[in-house]
Amino acid sequence: KSPYLLFTNRHEIRRIDLVKRDYSQVVSTQKNAVALDLDVANNRVFWCDRFHRKIYSAFIHEASDPSQQVPLVDSSLQTPVGLALDWLQHNLYWTDSGDKSISVSSVDGTKRRVLISSDLSEPRAIALDPHHGFMYWSDWGTRAKIEKAGMNGVDRQILVSENIEWPNGITLDVANRRLYWVDSKLHLIASVDLNGAHRRTHMSSAERLGHPYALAVFEDRIYWTDRDKAAVFMANRLTGQDIQALAENLNDPHDVVVFHQLRQPPGPDSCNMGSVANGGCEYLCLKAPQITEHSPKYTCACPDGQDLGPDMRGCVPAAPRDDLTVRSPPTSGLTPDTRETAAEGIAPSSGGVSLADDVPYVTVAPSPSPEFLTPLSTLQPLSSQESESLGSHSMATAMVMSTTSAGDSSVSQHSGGKNFVLGENLTVAVLGVVIPIVPIVATVVFGLVCAGVYLVWRNWRHNSTKSMNFDNPVYRKTTGEGEEDEIHIGRTDTMGHHVHHHPYPQGVSMGVVGAGGGTCPQFIALPLGGSMPDAGTHWYTEQPMLSTAK
């Protein structure tokens, strides 16, 4: 058969034959179809409707009939934006930018599990390599990157993290072992090998690549959708030339895939190679990454809230975690839909009010009997994967105490992204003691700083004040009792008219005869003290005789 394209056009899915250039409608009456993938061997199409928050499936020749469109996953979806089919193990993978997770389900949608829910900001496109057991996805969030992990969620690594902004679409060239992506902000199409090396830019032009969203590669051609130009284009994969428009004047094109047998080469189903169906797994059987020749072919997985048993195939209930429950405060802006998803521990969609900023109320759930409480010494610590998953979960998370006995090591402590085991980590207990003390310590430190500043200022003021100390006894005035401690110094010739303030006894005249014959007033400093023979007399007993003539 000749290859053809399938692409979403918001309210429909259309088909373009790449040889005959026939143009037809495959799926109609959609609200917001954004992502799709194919099962070439069974002639089926899968797609996500972002408005209905569901994943649908239909046979291509019957997809135009709404009654034949079967919803596979119709619950606990927030914003499904990427979709990929494992055509060998028959599992369906998708990204959800609403609850920031990557999930997997059986092809009929009856079994599902969240694989990755940590360190995801804005997951978008996803692509699979089921022959080697790896999945690839793009994240256009704060730290844009393209990552890779096993299809069972392990061995995660970053392929591209530099010179990348908005990697909206990715696709695999399985034959040439390369990964292609479009960057809507940098206006380019680039590729790397499946280890993240040998990077190459195939096209880079803001004029030719307005807002590329998704792409597909087949043989020597590359196909992409452009939301700014509302069209689907193709070009030479090797040279980036020979650009042609395959469909124009579209409504809002998003995803695009190529339908052809070479796009999904056949291979063994690792979960059904032996006589035991589904690999002996009770629930999901997922392809394991083939890192070495000794790597396991598959991994069993259990639904959220359950863990693998000792045989690593059966599922057992996870350790009880109902000692603490999270109750979000009522919010007037919540719609019934968002209130329901909040009760399930899932962040509401963009149409509602986000609960990421709400502070949860932690209440203690009643225990059926006292013996279910486990001593603190038997609590188990978190695994590194659970710690990472809690860091990026959009809901507020409460710590819960594990009731698993210390000796039971077969039960995995998977938290499911909602709560986690306190274990031996006493950080919260320490913070509960430290936080109330912080204001007191701050107040004391502030008081000490103020006191120190005041003392420094007072010392500086004291040192900067200028003072005069007169040690000459002529100018020293001592404090004593009686009139004999008073000193009156003046000029006799100029103060004669002050009869009430004679500094000397009457009849005493003092003067200094100068060279010019004039008389200059003379000041006399008399010693103080109480050593006078007669306290009733003045400082001297007889008239002083001074001669100052030269």
From TrEMBL:
Asked if the record carries the keyword Transmembrane helix, the reply is yes
Which InterPro entries does this one have? 6-blade_b-propeller_TolB-like (IPR011042), Cueball_EGF_LRP_Nidogen (IPR050778), LDLR_classB_rpt (IPR000033)
- Where, by residue number, does the polypeptide cross the bilayer? 428-457
UniProt repeat feature LDL-receptor class B, residue ranges? 90-132, 133-176, 177-221
Region annotation (Disordered) ranges: 319-351
Give UniProt keywords alphabetically: Membrane, Transmembrane, Transmembrane helix
Instruction: Note whether Transmembrane occurs among the keywords.
Output: yes
**Which Pfam families does UniProt cross-reference here?**
Ldl_recept_b
Q: What is this protein called?
A: Low-density lipoprotein receptor-related protein 8
- Species this chain originates from: Characodon lateralis
